[in-house]
Request: fold
Amino acid sequence: MSTYLTSWLNAGLLLLDVLIVAILLPTVVSQRRESGATLAWVLVIVLLPFLGLLSFWLFGTTRLHLRRRKRRKVEEKLARSLERVQPDLDGTQQIMGISPSLLKLARKLDDVGPLAGNSVDTMRDGGDVFAALENAFDTATRHIHLIYYIWEPDFTGERLRDALVRAAQRGVEVRLLLDDVGSRQAKQRFFAPLLAVGGHVERFLKVNILSRRLNLNNRNHRKVAVIDGRIAFTGGMNVGDVYAGLAEPWQDLHARIQGPVVYGLQEVFCQDWYHATGEDLVSETYFPALDNRGGVCAQFLASGPADERWQAIHTILFAAMNLACERIWIETPYFVPDRPILMALQTAALRGVDVRLLLPGHSDHPLVQAAGRSFLDELLVAGARVFEMHRAMPHAKTVMIDGNFATLGSANMDQRSFRLNFEGNIFFYGQEIAGKLEQDFRAICRKAKEVTLHKRRKLDKTARFMESIARLLAPLL
Reply:
């Protein structure tokens, strides 16, 4: 190639770089992200324009125009039922020891607030969870509604699919909503037996190159199952052998729920289903009157990147951490906190609150783990304690505060869950579930290895440098 042609080619590439930067930077800035995320995108685009363009197209845009169900609130249709089970806030504050301001915030976030009268069984064994799900499918009489991020076409996936087939053959309405990226391995032919007997399988935010729908950044990470509008399941477990304990060691957490809080899970399913299909399911058919089933006061909160007023999960966790008086215990597989959560944990530890983190010793996402570890020194210096599990991959996502407030669900303690993905968590107000989860947490920590500041200071320079590099990408992970 001649020197003249090479010069023109270099000039053309330089001009293209400048155009990419000139066009993308105003777009990134105008999105008004958290400042760290904005800075990360600016660095990628300026230093690697072509890679930045591709990455921003796939992961950086939020071109979400969700089809929203009409504002016919479920509570308007079921006001009488909700009045029977919605606790009086003044009385609840005295009984449960929850801060009055936290309860007021909880009610603001979904216009309903915590509901009394629920029965909740927490399960850590995947075999128990999938046996309970299969039994619920086999005893369903009216409908089964499911949202899953991952559904694997393996033994466990086939087992639950076949249970849905049996239900559909009995005349039960079966609706399954899958994230199009997370469940990409489970092709339509895998669900052919279910479709053949009248089941419905839809994909959330379909990825289609031909229609330029390539948004990989905002995924439906929820795990929700509602049976007959009376029984619900939620937590951290997707459908697959790894979650059932049939593959590598995996530790997770799920809950079986009965009572009025099932309304919240059903409403979230109806909203997501309406976006995917245009079918509006909000009617008394799918929201039967629910009676008091136990003594647990609970609330299901959903959050996501589109049309969400308050980023409910992040907001209530941040508030609860700042109100903590005795302890904040967190179990999460992916710990990449934003600045508000990091500051809440640091200041809590400095105030004398017992702050503990339970994290994986070896993660299935090494880059995320490296980014997360870069935050540990700041927490350890403040007095927090960190434990790493090496005998299994901890995939549970749970937070326990002061023995009377707890949550479990799909949201990790990272910026992707707080701002980019569609998530769903159930929150518990009172000692019954929080106490049980704390007991589990203690038992797991006894088998885990504690990470100390002394051990962290022994890290070689290469490891620290890799953590620092990963931290630059933290807002994007």
Observations:
- Residues 89-93 have pLDDT under 50 and may be disordered.
